[in-house]
Please model this.
Amino acid sequence: MPENDTDVAAHWLFGDQLGPHFLTAGPDGPHRDTPLLMVESRGVFRRRRFHRAKAHLVLSAMRHRAAELGDRVTYVRADGYVEGVREAVGDAPLTVHHPTSRAALKLVRARPSTRVLPARGFLVGHDAFREWAARSGSGQLRQETFYRWVRGNHDLLMDGAEPAGGRWNLDHDNREPAPRGAADLGVPAPYRPREDDIDTEVRADLDRWEREGTVEFLGEDGPRRFPATRREALSALRRFLEVRLPTFGTYEDAVLAADPVMSHSLLSSSLNLGLLDPAECVEGAEAEYRAGRAPLNSVEGFVRQIAGWREYVWQLYWHFGPEHRKANVLRAHGEVPSWWEELDSGAVTANCLSHVLDDVRATGWTHHIPRLMILGSYALQRGWDPAEVTDWFHRAFVDGYDWVMVPNVVGMSQFADGGRMTTKPYTSGGAYLNRMTDFCGDCRFKPTVRVGDDACPFTAGYWAFLHRHRTRFEHNPRMAQAVRGLGRLSDLDALLEQERDRAD
Model:
């Protein structure tokens, strides 16, 4: 291990450490003149079948960053990280900021003479989180408590010792369905980047790999929709803050078939690539509120997504340990069906599922409600293996990374950890979808029908799920009333038989 930075041959930048804050000099960062190393591993795409738009975005972002850094960076294209590092620096000492996955951390720690520096790209350090968790006492590391602690520590939306507006959480104000009869929210479109020669080169490489049969992708790779450079990411952030943030909060949980992005920021991929620092995002949103240009419910909702949920998920990925990804307390072992893996929206009759799968196939993105209450809820109700579901979300979404998807899918979406992250499963019948989306109106299935040809798969699936796990949830304060509702279903036997016979 090197004793000081002058002994270091280079500083290794991973493909999700692409912003300037990963190169800020200091005691826990590289010197300004330290040579840099980046490794593009084709083996990542050989081992797993990722969305093509995701592969394009990641490679475009890495190559754009290498072009910006110029002669300071050695950019290696190799079959794997080990081979790439060996080719570039041999056994010479390296520094690297704490990677974002357990596999990557294991890889860098296994290499002699590699010093792992503290993680960047997050508001809360690992040591600070461990201290907070130790003080919590009860063992219940609830997101709301953590969120308030982050707000106070970082003076975010605070008026002295109190939250701005007198309330910590304005979620109750952010659950409105879209205006009745509206096809879209009528807000300005999100920022869209323009492709360049690097994008053309990446697409040609992906085409060649597929022709060679060495790599296989899922989904489509149309014109790039998400930022691949710091300049693009800042433009996307600025456009969101200036023209889309004001309408974000109220309709945060609503879904419109013809307007899949609504007022959402579409900044998750830029944050997860390291192109944006979370501090500049939440501070920028607060500035809009303080200037009177954005309402508090929208700003607080956005701040909660980043300073609350994103930070919470990052910390729990490490805090819960590697066994968390294997959690399966509901004993769900069903296989993810081929039509789901292939993003085959044409194989699906339910309107909501078809639309959302179509969006994922075309863009590699949907916002959090289609992910949680349509895709995740469907998988949960049908008892698919949570590890398989997690892997699919990781591969199918442009902003999906291991640290993102293990807590979000295992813990929240699939309730596979039995409530370590959430107090109840996030699933519902068709009534919720009918209220919060416009999918049900022209759907062949009816949200109020449980049994028969018109039975909504979410409504029937919800009751079948509750019946299957009645014993577990009958004493859960947030689920007990719903479980008691099973006793009022005169058609329960027919419903259960129907769901056993119905194909996924």
